[in-house]
Amino acid sequence: MTIRVMLVDDQVLLRTGFRMVLAAQPDMEVVAEAGDGAEAIEILRATAVDVVLMDVRMPRLDGVEATRRICSAEEHPKVLILTTFDLDEYAFSGLKAGASGFMLKDVPPAELLGAIRSVHSGDAVVAPSTTRRLLDRFAPMLPSTGKESGPGGSAMEKLTEREREVMLLVAQGLSNGEIAARLVLSEATVKTHVGRILTKLGLRDRVQVVVLAYESGLVRAGGL
Q1: Do 101 and 81 contact (CB within 8 A), yes or no?
Q2: What residue ranges of the chain have pLDDT lower than 50?
Q3: Which of 1, 42, 162, 188 sits a CA distance of 20 to 30 A from 69?
């Protein structure tokens, strides 16, 4: 199955670079490009797209608002936010808006391609190393409410002690393999715990686990 990709970035050179990388893949095709969020939304009305690579800071309509509008539709493509270190707060807003993950613009090609495939298959992409670096920078901008207060306080009561442990490690950006090693569990068991956490908290994916943990104060800057 060919993954239909849309590139949204106001820098033509960046779009050209991404297009060249994707064009070399037998399972990917760049079917559309846009220079801002407004143009992207207009093109999506008439073009079938599976994954949108979305820049954040663009003229007319930024990537966060474009992501919010795209993901508010009942049927919509997956959105993968592309960000830089000086736009961390925008990346977080993009995740809240419904993006399936975020990557740095200088990500190695192989990692970007893997992220696109993962998002297309229904997984969320928050690369562990990227998560730790980015969240450490923008977490201070989030309200610090204390461990048991905030929007996630009552929800946490649904979790077992082990599930809570797993959730906090997910929020810190650890992969299933890293969590398994940390807690001395099998990777399959960790995957089961993650699934139960998502179900109990009514969350879509690992990205929303990160968002909830930071917004509720369960994890704070300096704790990574």
Answers
A1: yes
A2: 142-151, 221-224
A3: 1
